[in-house]
Fold these 2 entries.
Entry 1:
Amino acid sequence: MGDGKESVVLFPFMGQGHIIPFLALALHIEQTNSTDCAIYFVNTPLNVRKLKSSLPPNSSIRFLEIPFSSITHGLPPASENADTLPYHLVMRLFQASASLEFKSSFMEAIHNLTIHNHGRPPLCIISDIFLGWTATLAKELGVYHAIFSGAGGFGLACYYSLWFDLPHRKVSTDEFSLPDFEEASIVLHRTQLPANIAEADGEDDWSIFHRENLSAWVDSDWLLFNTVEEFDQIGLSYFRRKFPGAIVRPIGPLVLELKSRDRIGNTTGEVTREAILKWLDSKPSNSVLYVSFGSMNTISASQMMQLGKALEGSGKNFIWVVRPPIGVDINSEFKAEEWLPEGFEERNKASGRGLLVQKWAPQVEILSHRAASAFLSHCGWNSVMESLSQGVPMLGWALAGEQFFNVKFLEEEVGACVEVGRGKQSEVKSEDIERKIKWVMEETEKGKEMRRNAEKVKEIIDKAWKHGDGSSVKSVHDFLTAAKQLIV
Ligand SMILES: *[C@@H]1O[C@H](CO)[C@@H](O)[C@H](O)[C@H]1NC(C)=O
Ligand SMILES: *[C@@H]1O[C@H](CO)[C@@H](O)[C@H](O)[C@H]1NC(C)=O
Ligand SMILES: *[C@@H]1O[C@H](CO)[C@@H](O)[C@H](O)[C@H]1NC(C)=O
């Protein structure tokens, strides 16, 4: 500290889906740092500890810890991450993140940093969509500010618009449009709403949090999205209209460099990364379906059974990242004999057709392997970006948050995805999933078209990153330059 460099402060919400794109952004700024800034990553102590061990050893990224007492906020001891909380407690973490105590700790951290830098405040603060109050604070301090969304423009526009408008409360039909998101002519079905939005009436805790905190973005100077302009224009134009005072720019796809993703992932499973890659090497090109529901989600026991039947029935090679079904401790042992069709694991091991991986797999490496053909995914935005930057088409099965709108976008606007399941409760049929796996992976008209569309997106993405001067790379540079100009 105090080495005369300008400092850039990054502050994600406490959840893996938020921390990962912020970490990717921090590493990107570090690598392309033409403005030579010191990078500070802000979070609570337990998250910082995990992050420290996931950084490359030669990284210069520094950490600022915000003290956090989970018990004070009605949370179990040592709970600082949305991913470790049961759903009914997640709201408390949100409330804690907007509490006076938390805000003043952040303010103190910024104050300390300023003192260490001989009275010079940070060059800028880049913070999370759920930490809107940091924009208001930065404005008061005269510090340049950006909101960075790890989510895509389209999905987040649906999410934002739903919270402010609650259009499903105004009609009695199952289907409804989003009049506030006029850039997209989309029709949603009630089953595509995350539980908290479906139940919202404007007076509930979630509505209150989102309406107040999301609207604080108005105090931000820039809104940055982990996406690409040509691919996600509709969603970005929504935010350009809503926030005419802010500069809205895509800076994606920020895909976390492989080794860091390895370190941050749970590598405690039995199948090692080397074994997975060796298995992939033994398979023909474009022959493997990769199945994963992300780092924090799982499906129901009956859905798992149907998916297992579909994978076997399809006759395709597959890697399936398995986690215990809903209702079972997510960290407990996976019981294939109980939750999958009888003899499933043995049969697929013997034939070499399927690989079950517990908890976590090196996703980016799998998707970029020549053997990868399609990705059955919950369509969290990190996964979407990781898949499409490799031109891999998707089978969508949204489970939470804006994932439902991502699937809608990918299926209807992009044409690189087909929906196979919706939510954790719905009934799915193995024949239906099997049929769709074949569509995507075989030489069907639909499959060819989906692969073509995924390839198109890959080209757009490549262009945005090409030679370090594509539109996305330029956006980050422009933002830091603009922040600098404010100071001198
Ligand atoms: C760290 O090492 C890697 C691999 O040698 C290199 O690509 C990267 O630029 C280095 N990062 C820093 C901050 O020096
Ligand atoms: C700020 O600095 C003081 C004095 O060094 C320290 O006690 C305090 O923990 C720091 N606060 C934060 C949030 O970093
Ligand atoms: C954000 O939400 C919390 C919890 O609902 C609330 O206490 C706070 O005042 C809200 N607004 C801002 C700008 O933090």
Entry 2:
Amino acid sequence: MSEDTTDRGFTTAILHGDRASPIEHGALHKPLHLSVAYAYARAEDLVAVFQGRQSGYAYGRQGNPTTAALEAKVTAMEGGVATACFSTGMAAIEAILVALLTGGDHVVSSSFVFGNTNSLFNTFASHGTPVTFVDATDVANVERALTPATKLVFVETIANPRTQVADLERIGDLCRARGILYVVDNTMTSPWLFRPARVGAGLVVNALTKYIGGHGNALGGAVTDTGRFDWTRYPNIADNYRKQPPAMQGITQLRKKGLRDGGAALSAEQAHHLAVGAETLALRLDRQCANAMALAQFLASHPAVSAVHYPGLPTHAQHERARALFRAPGALLSFELAPGRNVLDALDAFRIVVLSSNLGDNRTLAIPVAQTIYWEMGAARRAEMGIADSLVRVSVGIEDRDDLIGDFRRALG
Ligand SMILES: *Cc1c(COP(=O)(O)O)cnc(C)c1O
């Protein structure tokens, strides 16, 4: 972690964090706690847990010790004050909206967000929480969209699939000046490449499914409170949760209204898989970013490729911003084929790269965007978002670099 939380390095802290509190029998991994309910010897303790005066477990839907160990790990990785885990990344985002907004509140979101996040925001708009989508690569667009009812600004760090980098720092300054909750989805960078607390984010979302878990074998999501937002001035906190210390009011309401009432709890087994994956986050991602850089350079010089979108290339519109903010420019890129090339035929020639919709896996995954994940929105909206018919998204894995480049060389012919 950085100097502000502990003097241990990022990976050391992940590996040895669980044992900060003694684990049964000296186990090195936090055990799987599968019990749904928890017993108390004294009625007074049961009451105190229910009234939030004492920490403890009440019912599995609100958390369990295995998940709590993962929450502590994510909090440490993000340099935050508390984390709530959810069954998926989408559940984490939905919980923020359900728990912290009321009808009539207004949201400003980057238009370059994960497709399902975009769809979720539209659902919320239909329930009476209007959302304005703006090009968040420039803070001026965010500022113009603010209204007196704006309670929340939502951005991603590096957008998928076109890799736009939001104006993270200046949007943070704007939100701080206006007292607006700033939510940053850090999935594409993960806390190894970037900590949104640094630019003033109040809440950080991580889809644990992606780089933190890393192996494509478990779904999970997390919301971390960075301690940067003043909840005492946020009007939507219920009286009950005002009794908590100021720093805990937001996460308490999120845990109660979002997790307990919404019900998308992360199971102990999934939490275990994700925690094991997290141990090698820094190692995997360093290798993935190095592979992505090499692949981006290879594609940029290939005659069958007409455009490459990767923040590590000097031609990228936010290249300097990415250099200033992130440890590395991420492991996701996209590219367009030159006219006359059939995108599906090219993808069929891969022998190593996997045709799949996930990202953040150890394996390199590729998908034709317009025909799959952006199919439902239609051609007009795709054109607005700059999604060409030949656009291919690549989530770069940890394969040996020559094998990976060789597979692309073969596919591009
Ligand atoms: C995948 C993803 C999500 C959703 O995570 P799930 O665990 O699949 O629900 C949210 N945000 C971003 C940026 C993602 O890539």
